[in-house]
Amino acid sequence: MGGHPDAVAGGAGHSRLIIVDRRKGYVMEASLQMPVGARSIEEFMGSVAVELAAAASTALAIVGDRLGLYRALAQAGALTSSELAARTGCAERYVREWLSNQAAGGWVLFDESSEKFSLPPTHAAVIAEEESPVFLGGSLQVVGAMFASLDLLCEAFRTGDGIGWAEHHADLHDGAARFFRTACAAYLPQWVEELDGVADRLRAGGRIADVGCGQGGGAIALAKAFPAARVVGLDSHGPSIEKARAAAAAAGVADRVAFIGSPASDLEVGEFDLVTMLDCLHDMGDPVGAASAARAALVADGALLLVEPAAGDRLVDNFNPTGRMYYASSTAFCTPCALAQDGGWALGNQAGESRLRDVLARAGLKRVEVVAQTPFQLVLGGRP
User: Same structural domain for residues 22 and 98?
Assistant: First the structure.
């Protein structure tokens, strides 16, 4: 039916919904009970339509990321659909339809006179340039993994059981690694500099432990920033450890970075000047136990650097696009991961500063300070 819904007021607490077919005229009318002050049906349906368009287009953005369509556009400047297809080894008819979707959403620009499409530099930094500190291609990959895990997630909702990190599609592991690798390279050394005295000790040859290291982005960034230091990364996910070792070799730092398939509890006591926990504490079934192990691993004047998703302490503080995004990933990945482990905790990735401080205090970290705050991260430093 080629119609559209139209809702009009029908008295206090009521709306009249009329569905119209442009060819046939009036089709159906219904009176619906509506709470006073509620959004109109038409307004809310419009909002849902926007969300559906974004969700459907995200699937196509993943295609563009995976097939190198964005990268080719960024490198070429402006291309027709035929030229982009030739550059990427794809079929023109598919590329043409993909470009139409991307132009409709404003991700790429279309010049009607030349029939060429282009990717502005500001857009390229976000979706095409892998080494850009604002690159979000990995986040697209994570969203794809979310849809791949829907059956697991629905079952977990019914049973209350957890879903282990390893049970998810590999796009989750790889996408998270891509997202955090560029952020770590850009910001992690700066955050360490904010910890009084720690950076100097690392420059003189200190030791670093990166707990929950994933595919090694943080550990490698630290090894590059502090070449005299020795770094060990720990993670219980075997495939990520293997990729971390390969990444360290490719980065030329394998001589000073070691990766071990172990949990935080395996840290050596009193051996490290710096312990980092980068976006992983909330994924742990026993975050107090993990933070306690990190504290015990520190030398007398060592420091814990904790990076967690930015969040306010109150639920309503997080009613914004960033909070919404994080609650979605927390529902699909972070909370199930914690529930799959022993410990009884499930912080969620929107724990907020107060709850994080409480965890660190329980772990015996007495001096806790905010080191940095970004739109996406809250960075805390803790001392014994």
Answer: no
- What is the CB neighbour count within 10 angstroms for residue 188? 25
**Residue 8 has what pLDDT?**
42
Looking at the fold, whether 17 and 71 belong to one and the same domain comes out as no
Pairing of strands 4-9, 25-33: unpaired
The predicted model scores a pTM of 0.86
What is the mean pLDDT of the segment spanning 44-73? 96
Domain boundaries, position 63: 42-129
pLDDT above 70: percentage of residues in the chain:
90
User: Given a cut of 80, is residue 29 above it in pLDDT?
Assistant: no
Q: Which pairing describes strands 25-33 and 14-21: parallel, antiparallel, or unpaired?
A: antiparallel
- Alpha-carbon distance of 73 to 90, in angstroms, equals 13
End-to-end CA, the chain: 67
CA atoms of 376 and 166, how far apart (whole Å) = 25
32 and 47 assigned to the same domain: no
Which residue, 100, 57, 56, 104, is CA-closest to 81? 100
Total of domains in the chain: 3
At residue 289 the predicted structure's pLDDT band, cuts being 50, 70 and 90, is very high
Q: What is the CATH number of the domain that holds 295?
A: 3.40.50.150
